[in-house]
What we know:
The chain is built from 20 helices and 9 strands. It is of the alpha/beta class. Strands 6-7-8-3-9 form a 5-stranded parallel β-sheet, sandwiched between helices. A 4-stranded antiparallel β-sheet has the order 2-1-4-5, covered by helices on one side.
Amino acid sequence: MKLPLPLTVAGPAARVQVPALAAAAGLVVLRVGVLLLRPWPLALAVDHALAGTPGSWAGFDPLTILVLAGAATILLSAAIGLLDMAGLRTAEGAAERIGASLRATMFHQAMTRSLRWHDRMRSGELVSRLTTDVGRLLDGVVAVATSFLPDAVMLLGVLGLLFAFDPGLAVIGLTVVPVLAVLAVRQRRRIRAAQQEARAESGRLAGATTDLLRNVRAVQAFGRADRATAVFGTRNRAVLDVELRAVDVDARWTPVADIVLAIGSALVLVVGGRHVLAGVLTTGQLLVVLAYLRDLYSPVRGLTRLSAVLAKAGASASRVREVLECDEAVVDRVDALPAPALRQDVRFEEVAFSYEAAHPVLTDVNLRIVAGETVCLLGPSGIGKSTLLHLLLRLYDVDAGRILIDGVDLRDCDQRSLRERFAFVPQDPWLLDASVAENIAFGNQHATRAGVLAAGRAALVDEFVDRLPFGYDTPLGEGGIRLSGGQRRRVALARAAVSEAPMVLLDEPTASLDPHSAAAVVEAIRTTTTNRTVLLVTHDHDLAAIADRVVTLPPRQTHQPPLTAELQPSGRR
Ligand SMILES: Nc1ncnc2c1ncn2[C@@H]1O[C@H](COP(=O)(O)OP(=O)(O)OP(=O)(O)O)[C@@H](O)[C@H]1O
């Protein structure tokens, strides 16, 4: 049998929670058993205390029977309520644990997917899948645990009792069930389609919102708050429209189900009433049949509602599955070896790469950097300088050619050890919402406090850190917002300084800095890169002067020529 999609997707995370889910289902089944006893006190009161033959039940007088029936009603209702609470609490608790485990797996998956995938998937969209979609998927898991089995048991129990009690009335009451089943299947398809559309639109809203919030400074600086609000408004309205349509599809179902079920009850009332008038059935027995019928319809309605919840959860489950099953990652070979220590050289051989198939960025790139050498890459904007650094870090795999470190292809190296060979200072310093010290320590997982402070000194972080309220322990805010551009760069350089990597990759470390800050950063680079191999991307000729060799990437022609042009070496710093 094919499991519903939400269960398939939650499956691996749900495995350890199976006992808890089974316990929840058991509690709810028990509740169903008690529920089946509920009509009997009423029948007892009607048939033995109010009408017919008072005092005929176990020798009790009518008042005692009424009190006993009342007490039984209270006890049964209390037991139903308590079992309900225990079942729901167990199921919801298990679902929350499944949710936490699913989110953790999805997050790890996202952290290890290739950047090509991240280039397509907006971060807001991913957050929406991690939070809202996981939540909706869990609604489906809870509904199956607390609804499917109990409703099925209840349905079979009530059916058995009804047939034992009055087969004729049972058949009449059941005629509406197939009609309802056909309608429910049609409804399920509609709900699923509406929910898929709604979830996709919500994901787009989350993506646009994250983008706008992240760029709030640009929005305000350009006086574009109205435009940003309008962009948000368009997306927001689109979500509202599809959500309203989805609500409409869902809500329209309730009266349809109620009317079909009421027709069943009305038929039984008319036919059963005639049986009572003819003296074939007592009034109490007719009430029991009607109560059972209501109890029969409750699981029928429950199962059709479950189908709707599963349809909603299914729309979210496919979005969660897309993340969980994505295999777009830069993967290690089974026989991958630790990356060499970089004692000889790094070589790019006939390297070709493109982010998008039709737009080659690099073709036939050849470059050799000897260990201990500082090489500066110059070239027009957009020519592919940063891309070369990304390829060296193996953030992307080359499309053709190869990159070698001490003669070993990067693709034969284990990624973790490979990345330990490089200290990367990106164009945008990528600071975390953490303290200065924690941001520096990010560069080396074994960094000690003393090592962090020494790196801060080398990268001239000391020059400004004393002015921060808690020195090295000052939180920097999202993206390091509490620091100036030059200060952020120096923290990023301190990361490279604390790292023990033999090669430093610097991507425009002095871009957009004033002459004083740029000079400070150049000084910090000199100190932090001593005795290391350096590949430096810059447009800054002062910074280029510290290199042993400058390599210029020529402007791209229709067919890009190989990267071989090398300018005259400048003096060693
Ligand atoms: N993630 C990406 N997806 C698609 N195209 C990209 C991506 N990153 C860069 N590109 C494209 O690749 C080309 C090379 O970009 P890259 O950042 O390597 O240039 P660069 O030489 O470092 O430029 P700059 O000097 O302006 O920093 C550019 O044309 C850019 O549009």
